[in-house]
Structure formats: structure tokens, C-alpha cells
Design brief:
The chain is built from 11 helices and 11 strands. It is α/β, with parallel strands linked by helices. It has a single domain, classed as ComB-like (putative 2-phosphosulfolactate phosphatase, Alpha-Beta Complex). The strands form 4 sheets. Strands 1-7-2-6 form a 4-stranded parallel β-sheet, with helices on both faces. Strands 3-5-4 form a 3-stranded parallel β-sheet, with helices on both faces. Strands 8-9 form a two-stranded antiparallel ribbon. A hairpin with a 2-residue loop joins strand 10 and strand 11. Helix 7 crosses helix 8 and helix 10 runs antiparallel to helix 11. The radius of gyration is 17 Å and the shape is globular.
Length: 254
Amino acid sequence: MNPPGRMDWFTQAEAGVRFEWGLSGAKMLAQTGGCLLVLDVLTFTTAVAVAVGKGTAVFPFPWNDTRATQFAARRDAELAVDRRATSPERPWSLSPAAIFRAPPARRLVLPSPNGSTIAAASSGTVVAASLRNAAAVARWAIAGGFGTPERPAVVIAAGERWPDGSLRPALEDLLGAGAVIQTLREAGCPCSAEALAAASTFLATTDVAAVVRSCSSGRQLSSAGFLEDVIIAAELDVDRVVPVLQDGAFAAYP
């Protein structure tokens, strides 16, 4: 353990590509001049990529926050509903499959317990990354001059939650993070030990889609009747869209 007041051991400051988990990790590693690449594969950042690809501006917002309705009204935006509560009038939810089928909303508030909460609490340059757009996000970061100790690419796996509210590291987010990091690594960006471990996990996974379907989060969604969401989220590098947080909403980087 580090002495009180000494948290620099955990910032991975020597590396241009850094990796951590959850909201606390995002707060710890966030650095002025860097970018924050958030992965919530099942399913916030996947849903964002799908929605932004259809021309929707997506506002992140904390989960179970009673102010969401007012927040959406002030921004003239639709408010996403629970996956099981979609209707012809309100077809938008955290389900990527539902967003694929729904007419594109001009503006959408999309709360979630993990990825959306992290994005809403973060400042600076924030990007929604997923397995679907992992290579595109990494190439965007490289083109923007990120991936150096001075301008780090900070990769955050959102993870899930145990029933007591504590962080549950989620395999699908580790694989998504590893996919992004591996592309940065191949471009010569110096990676922390944590980032290299995530990349190694991705490289060692011969069938990413099968692993996402069979991991705990994938099984949970599938058993609830949302296998299509899992299949969509497990597709690797099928999207070129890079959703960047601008003026409070994710929009496609030009």
C-alpha cells in the first residue's frame, strides 16, 4: 500500500497508454491533455456507437437519477427507456438491437449504471469505444496525437456491478479494452503493465464473439431475452464511427 497522500504509484504516469476499471479508475487516471476511452461493451458504448452511426447525438446520464426527465426536456431530447419498456412511441433503450430497428432520434439521453455514469462524470476528451469500433477509436487517438506520456490514451473498462453495488470486473470490457490497446501498441505507443495485460488477454482470445456470448454478462442478457444485443456487441471492428463527447453529447467525429 502507498503512504497516505501518495497516489502517484497508481497513475501509470510513465506510459502513453493506460488502463483501469470503473469510475474511480477514470477519476484517478484522467489527465489534462489526454483522452478517456470508455468501454461498456454490454451495452452502453455499443449502443452509443450504433446510435451515433445513425446520426443521433447521445447524452450520457447517471442511472436511476430522477432528474433524467427534466434533463432530456431541457435538451429537447428523447429519454431512453428500460429494454422491456420499449413501445412504438418510445423505441429507444440501452438495447443496440432496439436502436438499430428504431427510427433515428435527433437527440437521445441514454442513462446506464456504468459507462454512461462514467462518461457523464468525466471532463476533457471522452470517447465511447466498443468491440465494434475498437480499431477506429485507436486510429483516431493515434491521429490526434494521443498515446504519449504527455497526452495519454486512458482506456477505462466500465465493468458491471455486484448486488451490493461494488465493481464487478467484466470480461467483455477487458476484451474491448484489449482490442483498443493492441492497436495502439502496434502503432508504437508505450503501454503500462496494466494496459499490456489487457492487450494480452485480447490476443489470447481466439474467438472473441464466442467468449462474449458465454461470459457472465452475455449469459445474463441472453437469459433475459436479449441475445441479439450480445451478438451485435460481440462483432469486432465492424464500425468506423468514433463517438466523441462534445458539448455534453456523443457525436461522430468528423
